[in-house]
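Sequence only, no structure available. Ideas?
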Amino acid sequence: MSILEYVSLQPYNTFGLDATAHYFCRVQSKSDIQYLIEDEWQYYRQHLIIGGGSNLLFCSNVDGLAIINEIVGIEIIKEDDDYVWIQCLSGTTWHDVVLYCVDRDWYGIENLSLIPGTIGAAPMQNIGAYGAELKDVFEELEAIDLRTAKSKIFSNAACEFGYRESIFKKAEKGNYFIYSVTLKLHKKPKINTAYGDIQKVISEKNILHPTAKDISDAVISIRESKLPNPKVLGNAGSFFKNPEVEKTLALQIQHSHPNLPMYELENGKVKIPAAWLIEQCGWKGKKIGNTGNHAKQALVIVNYGNASGTEIWQHAQQVQLSVNETFGIHLEPEVNVWL
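Reply:
I predicted one. Tokens follow.
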């Protein structure tokens, strides 16, 4: 493992922003991480661990060490008649894990197809889509304490999963390097087609008994029809979380907007699609300078080629302000902003 100086991070973030890391390295094993902590850490003012770079917005350079996670691999650790447990090293691309599972007709993560990034980042924000979340199949993870270099196992409960949340974004933010993630998947069919357009796509293809791969293919086609390819148009997917609000506020909004889509939650609150709120405020397809909201999905903010991170962030804040002034709802970024 070698440590370089003044390296562009443009290839390592899906917005395509040309931030510079003062120091830069690639890690390919647990010992690489432990070496950095035990022997090198004191030389760097700050550090940033990068997986797929699909959830990062650089508004400044990294005045410290940027670490590219290249620790990859998938292994079956046990199985029985009903379930299989797989351990995935954290630098493995999330969609590669999905394909590995659907090719074997294992169920549980097919609805999460084509989500960008690595599996190491997945527990940090409890990734979710089309009625499924990581926590539904999550067994445990192994993480390395960045203060002591010691390993620790986190169970599902210990991760404190919430909506796009976990302990790694709250109390333990910045304290751990996630080394591996273990998932528990169903061997017998367990289909979830209730959310979004999945059932519509399945029906159009006349599939009566869909497999995990059928669901995965449907999700991929839906996502590709709505979301821009970051290799063509820089973006980080959904920029904001779908807000959870008090039911009284949702009913007030519904009074003036009868078409309001809303979903009642078990906690008594109501989830409202952030994309709908943004679109109602006139931002869908709106381009200002080098950035804007995508024409097919208002929740996606894009880089049209020459935007800076600051320009994108300022645009996002204008969207936040607009939604807040119109509906009294604060949109919380899903993207991690490096200020």
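The longest strand covers residues 176-186.
Hope that gets you unstuck.
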